[in-house]
Amino acid sequence: MVQSVDRALRILELLKENPSGQGVTEVANALEVAKSTAHRLLLSLERHGYVQKVGRESTYRLGLKFIEMNYFVVKHLNIVEIAKPIIEKLSKDTGEIVHLVMLDNQQVVYIDKVDNQSSIRIYSQVGRRAPLYCTAVGKSILAYRNEEEVLEYIDQVSFKRFTEHTFVNGEDLIKELHAIKKRGFSYDNEEHELGIRCVAAPIFDYTGEVQYAISVTGPENRMTDEILKSTIPKLLETVEEISIKMGFQKNI
């Protein structure tokens, strides 16, 4: 039984790598089994909708069942549940607060937060909203929107100066977004709250889109340039792990 399951999975992998299809002989050769065995496995997979036969040459391709399976998996992905243990580890490793946010109506919404033991009071709390243009998480998401969406956002947003460091000019923001996309992470250098610095990075979903981001946040006296620099590799490892669990695959 285990051997049959293993062979069936190998067939699915083979068909994934050969989207134009494979015949019974090709499948048998790849699995190093008799044609009768390969045919029996293909018939079973076809019966359940995982492969489909096309043309008169009995060529097999992946079946429509995978569309249904993909929809079900994506529909039931829970970003908070997936990310929770990973961001808890990031907070423990850095000793700072970690935020998970999602994009909603040209703002970010804090959907999870892992606190540290600091008594420093920070703006964020789960359910609270913040602008895109002056938060590290917001800029991480905005940097991966297309040019038309960014220009539309800049045209519609009312820039408010929260601190003397806040971006209030669309051209400056665009330059910053280009830099963020190039390096893969963003900073908030007291742009939203005085005395608070953050570094953030985007999370990619199975389509390659960015709807979520994570930040590491702390007081300015602790989040020195040196500490920020040492935090970045840990942050990037974290968002990559979460992105993979959300179905993201590089080089698609």
UniProtKB/TrEMBL annotation:
**What keyword terms does UniProt attach to this protein?**
DNA-binding, Transcription, Transcription regulation
A biological-process GO annotation: negative regulation of DNA-templated transcription
The yes or no answer to whether the keyword Transcription is present is yes
- Tell me which SUPFAM superfamilies the record gives: GAF domain-like (SSF55781), Winged helix' DNA-binding domain (SSF46785)
Keyword Transcription regulation: yes or no?
A: yes
Query: Which GO molecular function annotations are given, in alphabetical order?
Result: DNA binding; DNA-binding transcription factor activity
Pinpoint the HTH iclR-type domain residues.
2-64
Pfam families hit by this protein: HTH_IclR, IclR_C
Give the domain of life.
Bacteria
Q: Where is the IclR-ED domain?
A: 65-248
- What is this protein's function? May be an activator protein for the gylABX operon.
Name by which UniProt lists this protein:
Glycerol operon regulatory protein
